[in-house]
Design goal:
The chain is α/β, with parallel strands linked by helices and 400 residues long. It has 13 helices and eight strands. The protein has an eight-stranded mixed beta sheet with strand order 1-4-3-2-5-7-6-8, with helices on both faces. Strand 3, helix 2 and strand 4 form a beta-alpha-beta unit. It is elongated, with a radius of gyration of 28 Å.
């Protein structure tokens, strides 16, 4: 199993009995936080008790070797052991063990005020599905590096641009969400990019996202963040989750530019010197071929998002209703036949002239382009159909 909940060894103070109805689970990821984890657990339990909130504290120990797990358990937390390292791995383990109707996420380094928990619970009570903290207006001196102060708004802004999310601090470590929303989020990331994935999945699933201003304090102990590595992981995830921006847009531009160059060479060859028009035509052909491949990748990426995660994509759904596998296969075959036919004529002329120099460079390049694009369209159509089989395959094929 992915998650193992440790038993209490001899000599360890057992966690107090939990109420039958747990309203809030405070989930804390932990990797070698011996200096602060006990205070975090105690602070969370105190806030829950003083606020009259029936809750639990779950610490996801991510392979600590400094006794953090034992300290958390002694302080009254329920400890979940996840040996596979990673911010996302720890949270996925903690979520799987959480029993509350709501989950409040908070780091183990005392950078966030545990007294804010009731505010997050209040927003969830009033209908929010995901509540994000926003640290950017109240940062204690030394609590955030200059690189993070500059990079976080840029990454958050890029995420908002791509996915139309309403958050100013997409990477804040204090959040609240409904536990019944986890199934719709289908979270999978294991590293720091988990923070971005949660926001992206929430937006795509139509969940109501709200934001609360909170303060950021200087952390206890050494930071485990790597600004460049973690920033790249966030950016990489955003691109992977947006095949339109990553593939369809550049693919369409390349096809348009390449087709324009080829049309200019065929329509206005006199504008180019003989050597230049061949080179221009080859360049245009390459742009069309690469652009077509990128466009196919984009379609496959969007189809995967629909069939793997159940994302809503009206444009792709309309396309799937109008264009079948057979249409793509016939279109690809038509392009291949056209390319082969034009190429066959050129080869025939070449043979007729005694296998001498080939003077039909423009037509030869056009024939090769048509043939290659036809092959791409033909096999991309099959790949799209394979991706679409997943949903049909989830239905029972016959009697049990």
């Amino acid at each position: 199993m992915r998650v193992g909940i440790g038993t209490e060894p001899a000599g360890r103070v057992a966690s107090p009995p939990l109420p039958e109805q747990i309203r809030v689970s405070v989930v804390i990821p932990c990797l070698n936080e011996a200096a602060s984890i006990a205070r975090c657990v105690e602070a969370a339990r105190t806030v829950l008790a003083e606020s009259g909130i029936a809750g639990e504290v779950v610490v996801a120990d991510n392979g600590s070797d400094d006794g953090s797990g034992e300290l958390a358990s002694a302080a009254g937390a329920r400890v979940v052991h996840e040996p596979r390292r990673g911010y996302g791995s720890a949270y996925l383990a903690g979520f799987a063990a959480a029993r509350g109707d709501y989950i409040v996420m908070i780091d183990a380094d005392l950078t966030y005020d545990f007294g804010e928990i009731p505010r997050f619970v209040g927003e969830l009570d009033s209908g929010a599905d995901l509540v994000m903290g926003n640290r950017m207006r109240d940062i204690e001196p030394g609590a955030m590096s200059l690189l993070s102060r500059l990079g976080n708004p840029l990454l958050s802004g890029f995420l908002n641009l791509l996915f139309r999310t309403p958050v100013g601090d997409a990477h804040c470590g204090m959040r609240g969400l409904r536990r019944d929303a986890l199934g719709r989020l289908s979270l999978q990331s294991t590293g720091m990019e988990f923070a971005s994935e949660m926001v992206i999945r929430a937006a795509r699933s139509g969940l109501e996202i709200r934001e609360l201003p909170i303060a950021l304090r200087a952390r206890e102990g050494a930071s485990k963040l790597s600004p460049f590595r973690d920033g790249w992981r966030h950016l990489r995830l955003m691109l992977l989750y947006h095949p339109t921006f990553l593939f369809l847009v550049p693919g369409s531009l390349l096809v348009a530019i390449g087709a324009l160059l080829m049309a200019l060479v065929f329509g206005h060859a006199s504008l180019f010197g003989r050597g230049y028009f061949v080179h221009t035509l080859i360049g245009g052909s390459l742009l069309v071929i690469v652009g077509t491949q990128l466009f196919g990748f984009g379609l496959c990426g969007r189809a995967y998002a629909v069939h793997q995660f159940g994302d809503s994509d009206r444009w792709l759904q309309r396309l799937e209703r109008r264009v079948r596998l057979e249409h793509g296969l016939l279109g690809g075959l038509a392009l291949m036949v056209a390319g082969l036919a034009v190429g066959g004529v050129i080869v025939g002329r070449w043979i007729a002239h005694g296998l001498g120099g080939l003077s039909e460079e423009r037509v030869t390049i056009l024939a090769a382009t048509l043939l290659i694009i036809g092959i791409q369209v033909f096999f991309t159509s099959f790949l799209l159909s394979i991706i679409g089989m997943r949903r049909a395959g989830e239905r029972p094929a016959g009697p049990a």
